[in-house]
Amino acid sequence: MLKIKLSRLGKRGQPYYRIIVAEAKSKRDGKYVDLIGSYNPMVTPKEIKIDAVKYQDWMKKGAQPTETVKSLFRKQNQAQ
Q1: What is the CATH number of domain 2-79?
Q2: What does each C-alpha distance from 39 to 5, 16, 60, 61 come to in angstroms?
Q3: Which side of the chain, N or C, has fewer Cβ within a 10 Å radius?
């Protein structure tokens, strides 16, 4: 089963995340199928970039977003 989840990058204390589509049992920072966005919580306001077309396409194919990714997608859509 595919999941839409966060993959952590950045230094200690300065996180930066990629929003990826990966196998549910794969490691957090392991291989992924597709990169669909990014999330930077260290800037003000928090920077959320998710390709809505890719997100919806992967959802139609059966990928399940994590709760965090689902809430980030909602926040991005409210800001626009």
Answers
A1: 3.30.1320.10
A2: 11, 6, 23, 23
A3: C
